[in-house]
Amino acid sequence: MSNTKQPKSGLTRRSLLKTGAAAAGLAAGSGAITGFPTIWAQTKITLRQFGTGVSNINAIAEKCKADLGITLEMTATDSDAAAQRAVTQPNSYDIADVEYWIAKKVFPAGVLQPMEVKKLKYYDKIVPLFIDGKLKSDSTIAQGTAPHTVGFVEKPGAKTFAKAPTEWMTMVPTIYNADTLGIRPDLVGRDITSWADIMDPAFKGKTSILNIPSIGIMDAAMIMEAMGKIKYADKGNMTKAEIDKTIDFMIKAKQDGQFRAFWKSFDESVNLMASGEVVIQSMWSPAVASVRAKGIACKYQPLKEGYRAWGGGLGLASHLKGAQLDAAYEYINWYTSGWVGGYLNRQGYYSACMETAKNFMSADEWGYWIEGKPAQGDILSPEGKVMEKAGAVRDGGSFEERMGKVACWNSVMDEDRYMVRRWNEFIAA
């Protein structure tokens, strides 16, 4: 992008000392170099990363190779497969790029090692949501598995999460968003204001929700509460009775023909919406942008009950040590240094280190994506495609407006196994 700042390149290549990776850490931490030392290429370090498709992006691997000389081997899976792989195949990866509700399941298994806060170069730039759960000092902490509740442990080897920030982070936060319903404004024929609207008989056979149990159940909860069918003590941690009431209602709606489909992947949601088979469904922000990029009207609709949020981060495999571990820290510090954050922000997600990301966005991009201002010129995707025309305003407004209206976070409940069993009954019904 013409007016996007680029990081400085052509850093001095230092000969690798016997202490190898330690020299890299020293160089980066000394302040003598403004960017990152490009010496990892000489050690031929490869880091194997897996996680969901939202952030396992080839462009990030390519930029990492160019800036650090570290080869990133990325594998993209769906959320459930990511949770399973993290626990059952701990030697198959070095970096786990997973959501915080997955971390709640995974970290107690001992397959990830906590990170030393003092080694995290941009720790003080992480948005407070991930440190104390509040966007601003007067914010209310949302229900569900809020990232800060599983963000810290007291010491290495600890299997339980710390109640307050410590010197040891379970994961470094990277990406998050406030999710809502996507709609086809040209096909719904009226204003959509509530999660309850997805159950309007007028949309029978033209609705869809996400088929990942831990996330879909939260959409179902937002719908149920909006309809006045139930008031949960905590949507993110339902009782068995609440789970039963929710799933029984969803089964009946399914048998009545309310749903067209249940999607698991980004592409499925895009195709359902672009084809017009579905006119209202749970969706991800970049999926809405993808439909719009095809020249089809699609809106990420703010709703009066608020948003369902999710957040993800990078975790270190327990087996990492020595030069490999040093390289992993270097990679994480590079990840939070701004280029990736700008890239994620331009896709409609949010960066966990907003301050560094701002340096890699034009003033117009920052105004549109983060401040909720009308675009001065065309808004381009990271790949350079026109996403929005000049004058457009982001659905839901600014970062503070959107993340300030989060009703619940994606979650793992105490009754998780029971919930998954009941959810699968709903999908099979």
From TrEMBL:
Q: Which residues form a coiled coil?
A: none
Question: What's in the keyword line of the UniProt record?
Answer: Membrane, Periplasm, Signal, Transmembrane, Transmembrane helix
Q: Which InterPro entries match?
A: SBP, TAT_signal
Highest taxon, organism lineage: Bacteria
The yes or no answer to whether the keyword Plastid is present is no
Residue ranges of the TM segments: 21-40
Q: What is this protein called?
A: ABC transporter substrate-binding protein
